[in-house]
Every structure is written in structure tokens, then in C-alpha cells.
Amino acid sequence: MILPMKQFYPDLLLRTPFYPHPTYHDSSLAATIKTPYFRAALQLARPSLYQELEKCSI
Fold it and tell me: Which value, in Å, is the radius of gyration of the alpha carbons in the chain?
């Protein structure tokens, strides 16, 4: 049985979590927010929230 080829949208952007779910705890949130990977993802996902965090120097 031959399956038909699938075509995907050429501008598709798939976002997946960088950190596993168990690492998101209130106790480590401040440290997580300061990581470059998290900040880059936040800047892409929510530019306005990223700008507010930058204003607060977090």
C-alpha cells in the first residue's frame, strides 16, 4: 500500500517546549526567566511581555 505524499504549509512554524514540564516550578521561575533560551522564546512568542520584563530588569 502506497501512502500519498503530504504537503505542508511552507511557512509553518512549530513551537515546542524547550524545558520539560516538571522544570516549571515557582521556586525556579526567576532563574528560568533569566536564561537566554527562555528570553529568546518569550521575545518570539510574546514581544510585549518580553519588553515589560526588560523594563523591570528581570
Answer: 17
The set of residues, in sequence order, having a beta carbon less than 8 Å from that of 13 and lying 6+ positions away, is none
Q: Tell me, yes or no, if the pTM score tops 0.85.
A: no
Check residue 3 and give its pLDDT. 67
| Residues 58, 47: Cα–Cα separation, whole Å | 15
Give residue limits of the domains in the chain: 29-55
How many CA within 13 A on the CB side of residue 45?
A: 11
Q: Furthest-apart CA pair in the chain: how many Å? A: 59
Residue 17, judged by CB atoms within 10 A of its CB (0-12, 13-18, 19+), counts as: exposed
